[in-house]
Every structure is written in C-alpha cells, then in structure tokens.
C-alpha cells in the first residue's frame, strides 16, 4: 500500500473551516471534521491550518491521547522534495482564508503587562499601607 504524498502547496490550498489540512511531523491530516470538536477552539486550527503546524502542536504540549487522535485524520505524508509555502495561500475560489495577521507569542504582551500591573499594585496599595 503506497502512501499518498502532498506538496506544501497542495496542503496550503485546503485552508477553510470546510476543507482544512494540517501538517504535523511531516504527516498530512484532514482535520475538517475535527474543527468543531477541538477543545482549544476552531480559530486556533484555522489559524495554524494549511501549513506545517508541528512547532505549534508540540509547543502546546498535547497529551498522548491527542497525538493518538491524529491517526484517524491521517491522509498522507509531505513530499520531501517540496518546499514550504511562504505566506498564506488562496483557496480554489481565490479567497484568502488563513489569517494574515502576524503570528506571535502572546507572552510578549502578557509578561510586560504583568510587570506593569505588579509595579502599580506595589506602588499604590502595598507601599501606602
């Protein structure tokens, strides 16, 4: 039995809630039916879908059960001769549906905000008591 190979470009065209592929560890998954069931919300999958989401998947620290769940959505492997697609791709209707906003770690906002709030709390509530 041969494994179907997908290029990064092919995966990038499956980028809507109704047709969503994702690459994790060089394996391609059709996660369309899982979008509504995802405990972290569907928006996360749509934002990370249609591309290699290995780093995001591993950074979250998914449970072994989550990794096992992937197997039922497995549809093939990434063609090793293909190259990752830069930027978001358009679907067959020419619509750009993958988020075009800059992706980043929310801690870059949360940590400085926490420091400022801690300083203000100390300055006005602890010191004046």
TrEMBL record:
It is found in: Endoplasmic reticulum membrane; Microsome membrane. It is a single-pass membrane protein. Its main location: endoplasmic reticulum. The keyword Heme applies. The chain crosses the membrane at residues 109-126. SUPFAM superfamilies: Cytochrome b5-like heme/steroid binding domain. One of its GO terms (cellular component) is endoplasmic reticulum membrane. Keywords: Electron transport, Endoplasmic reticulum, Heme, Iron, Membrane, Metal-binding, Microsome, Transmembrane, Transmembrane helix, Transport. Gene3D superfamilies: Cytochrome b5-like heme/steroid binding domain. InterPro entries: Cyt_B5-like_heme/steroid-bd (IPR001199), Cyt_B5-like_heme/steroid_sf (IPR036400), Cyt_B5_heme-BS (IPR018506), Cytochrome_b5 (IPR050668). Residues 89-102 have a biased composition (Polar residues). It comes from the Eukaryota. Residues 83-102 are annotated as: Disordered. Residues 3-79 form the Cytochrome b5 heme-binding domain. GO terms for molecular function: heme binding; metal ion binding. Belongs to the cytochrome b5 family. This is Cytochrome b5 heme-binding domain-containing protein. It comes from Phycomyces blakesleeanus (strain ATCC 8743b / DSM 1359 / FGSC 10004 / NBRC 33097 / NRRL 1555).
């Amino acid at each position: 039995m041969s494994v179907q190979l997908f290029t990064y470009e092919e995966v990038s065209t499956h980028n809507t809630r109704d047709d969503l592929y994702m690459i994790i560890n060089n394996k391609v998954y059709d996660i369309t039916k899982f979008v509504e069931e995802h405990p972290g919300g569907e928006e996360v999958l749509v934002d990370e879908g249609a591309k290699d989401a290995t780093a995001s998947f591993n950074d979250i620290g998914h449970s072994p059960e989550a990794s096992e769940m992937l197997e039922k959505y497995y549809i093939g492997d990434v063609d090793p001769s293909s190259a990752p697609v830069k930027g978001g791709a358009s679907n067959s209707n020419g619509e750009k549906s993958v988020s075009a906003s800059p992706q980043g770690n929310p801690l870059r906002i949360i940590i400085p905000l926490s420091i400022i709030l801690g300083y203000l709390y100390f300055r006005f509530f602890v010191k004046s008591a």
